Every structure is written in C-alpha cells, then in structure tokens.
Amino acid sequence: MSELPVWAFVPLAAPVAALTVGFFLTHRVRPSATHLPILLSCSAVAAAALALLGGALGGASWSGRLFTWIAVGSMRVDFGLLYDPLTVSVLAMVSVVGLLIHVYASAYMAHDRGFSPFFLYFHMFFFMMIGLLTSDNYLQLYLFWEGVGLASFLLIGFWSHKATARAAAWKAFLTNRVGDVGFLLAILLMFRWAGTTRFADVFAAPGLISPDRAFIVGALLFWAACAKSAQFPLYVWLPDAMEGPTPVSALMHAATMVTAGVFLLARSYPLLERSPGLLAFIALIGGITAVWGAVGAIFRKDLKRVLAYSTVSHLGLMTLGLGAGGVFPAVFHLIVHGFFKAALFLCAGNVIHGLHDSLGGAPSATVEDAGGLGRDMPLTFAAFTLAALSLAGVPPLGGFWSKELVLSGAFAFPGLAVLGMLTAMGSSLYIGRLLFLTFLGERSWQRGKDAHAHEVSPAMWVPVMLLAAGGAVAGLFAAPLAHLLGAAHGHPSHLVTALSLTAMAAGAVLAWVCADGAPAWEPTWRARFPAFAEAVESDWGWQPFCHSLARGVGHGAAFLGGVVEGALWDPGTEDLARSIPAAGELLGRRARGLLNDYAWWMTAGAAALALMVTTCL
Do residues 423 and 505 make contact, with C-beta atoms less than 8 angstroms apart? Predict the structure, then answer.
C-alpha cells in the first residue's frame, strides 16, 4: 500500500465543502442555486475516482490514517481511507452514475418547492455512500452505513405531505435497523476476538481464524446486508421506497443504498470463505431473492414498482454470484446494473414528466397511463430500449456478460442453476412487458395515446442516454476489472450461454404475447382473478405478514412498557417522592431545637462510652 495521493482526499473533501457552502450560503441567500456547488462536487469526485481507477489499473493501491477517532485504554480506532481495487472499481461507478443523476435531478426537481433542501439531502446521501466505500475499518464503515440509512429516510419521505411517503420512509428505516443489529453485534465480536475492526487486521487476526467464530461474524454481516441490499426476507421495504422522487429511486437502486450490502459482503469475502457452508447459504438466499423479485416485477402495473422489484431480483443475482462464484461476478454485475438500472428509473421519470398533465401531478405512472409513447418520446424510448436489452441479457450488451458470469458460477450447483435460469427468463419477461406496454401499441384500455406526452429537456434526456450507453458497453471492462480484482476472467461455457439465451428468448416471447399477442390480457386477468391479483400485490401474503408482525411487536412493547412502567416504575418513583418529605418530617420532629435535652443526651452518651472503654481495659 502506498501513501495517499492528493486526489485521494477529494471524494470526501468535495462533498463536505459543497454541503457546507450549500447549507450556510446558497440555501439561505439563493436557494435556486443550491445545486451548483453540489454539481461541482460530483464532478470533482468523478474525476478523482477515475484518476484513482487509472492508478489502480497500473497496480497501485493506497491507504492512510487521517486521525485517531476513538482511544479508550488499549482500544484505538483510527479514521482512515482505503483505496484498494475493490474500492476504486465500485467508487468509479458510483461517482459517474451519481454525477449524471445529480444533473438529471437539477432539471427534474427544478419547480419543486423543496428544491434546496432536496439537493442537500441528496448530496448527503451521495457523500455517505462515498464514505462507506472508502472506509478502512468496519466501525467507520458502520458510521457511514447508518448515514446512508438516515439520508434514505429523509429522501424516501421527502414529499412528507403524502401519508404513503411517510409510511414508506419509516418502513425502510425500521427494516434496516433490524439488519443493523447484526452489523453492530459483528463489530462487538470483532473487538472481543480480534481487538480491532481494521479490515486487514480482522482477516488476519488469530482470534477469528477459527471457522466457528468466522461463521458467527460472517452470518451477522450477511444479516445486515440482507436488510440493506433487500434480500429475502428483509426486502419488504424496497418496493415502497419508490414513493420518493424519481432521482432518489435511481440513485438508491443503482449506486448507493442497495449496493452497500453487496459491497459489505465483497469486502468481507476473506472472512466469509473461511466460514463453513456460509457462502452456499448466501448463494441460496440470493437465488431465492432473484426469482422472488422477478415474479413480483412481472405482475406489477406501476412503472417504478416494476423496476423496484427488478432491483430486488438483480440484487439477488449479485448475492448469488458472490456466494457461488466469488467477488468478481458480483462486483461486475453490480457495476453494470448501476448504469442500466439508473437509466431505466430516469426513463420512468421522463415518462412521468411527459405525462404530467394527464396524471394530474401524480408522482408515478402505471401501464394504464402509458401506451404508444415511443412516438411522442423517441429519445426516452431509445434509451429505455437500450437499457432494457442490457438488463434482459441480450448480447453483446453489458448485462449479457455480467449475467453470464453469475450464471456460470451457479452452474456448479444444480439447484442454483435452475434459479438462475428462471431469473433470466423472468428478467426478459418483465422488462419486455414494460417496454411493450409503455412505448409500443395503442391498446383500448390505455390512456397514453390521448395523453399528449412530450419529450423532456436535454438536461433530462442526455444523462439518460449516457447511462444507457454505459450499461451497453460495460462488457468491454470485464477483463480489466477481473485483472484489477485478481480474478481469472474466462468466457462462459457454450452450455451456459445457450441455456441463458433460450431462457431470455422465452421470456421475450411471453412478454410479446402478454402485451401485443393478446392486448386485452392485462386488464382481463385482473378482472377474472381478483383473488390472484390481490395475492400478487401482497407478495403472496408476505407483506401483510410483515406488517402484522411489526404491529404485534409494537403492541407487545407497548404492553410490556405499560406493565413495567405503570405497575412497577411509576408507583415506586411516586412512593419515593412521597416518602422523602415524610422522612424529613419525622427527622424534623426529632430535632426540635431543645439545647438542654441535647446536652443531657450528649453527656449520657459520653459517660456510656467511657464506661465501655474502662470495662474493656
């Protein structure tokens, strides 16, 4: 490891400076200009990240201590920065995607009354993710991990006048706290068994070499990642998180919060691979999540909610790839997914913006509101198509290469291979259905043909086109990334490619049949099978179960609090408050100020003491 170069401080220093200027100056003096220092910060971070990536490709890596953060007895925790191959590869994607989404947001939110605070929250979200990626120890990473959670709470519930937004913000916040308990326990065990939380020291600590201890810590870290990266069963918050503004959904689903859990697992891989059976379990949970999310996306009507379930599915693929194939497949798919998923969410934002008048100002749109928009919004249609083809895994686009690497690892385990193929077919089906229903055709039950949609401004379609192009060409970086991460980069077997392309083609055909082959299928099945439609909307009963469980825990806590506080604590404190004045009254009656009596009692006591001493001698 080399000492930190000057540009290594930019990813943290630039956002801090921009937030300081934004809060204390532009937010107060000229709120409409709050985004300007923030856009400069994003540009500086992206430039520094690409410079660091170039150095890392040349074999360099950097780490350094900035200051001592905690010093208690023999325990010492430094605040430091780490730029190793894993950090710089993910940081480059996050910074570039984040910059383009910030540019988009400056136009999308331009007329919102909360423009200035939105950009401060938005950039704080970005800053917390940068801090998470560059941390050199688990405790520092946990600090930024919680910061990401706080920023997501503020942004999901940004339109706080909506009850659904407030509920979604609390749901995300509380669900993530469930996972964060695991992270905190893992950190405490690291201090107990390793005496440190610094990555390199933890991985080499004799106290954590034991497979049993490594399994416990690794399982706790995976539990934390399940919440942040929306793995089954803790994925329940992510579909509702689309209640926030569309740029928030894009940044969260592509480059910040949900990728944090996958990054944590990749960072902890030396610990996970020493844990017997844990990687296989991680891969299984990832496969289940991938299929579950794909099925959820197939039946949804809301554009952003379809993409949200798609994110759940692809996060499952990343987790499957990490458990079955190692760090490289998971990180490569994370990077490619960051580009095409950001493009898809922003295209959904363009559709919402273009349909603004017909939606009556609603923050989202359904397939019933769309239909035939490709004619009115050709640029958005082109970007969505390119990103959708990458997500579906159409060669030679980036999504094809990253998905093939994940599936290659899954084929070492027959059960995981089946889950992977089902996910490949489901991905093609739901994104093809969304493409057809939104941009193609003029179906009688859709309002898009009469909505008079319009194309968005260049500030909104240029970032989308760049993101879609990035997802398309990302496959070119597979070999350099493999070299950077020290992985062997081989091409998928012909069998894997043939099966995955067959699954993808089957999904595309089903999507066409559902959308155009039988144009009335979409509203018909919902009307004929309302119970099935209700089951789909509830995630087969899992969402209501989680809500009931949360309410039960809340009522139980309230009951116990009432019993302990009402029956024990309150009476005890009230009795104590009454007994103190009573004791004072009693003592007061004994101290009446009669000096004669005091003198006699003192004399008697002295005489008794003298008699006792004399007797003893």
Answer: no
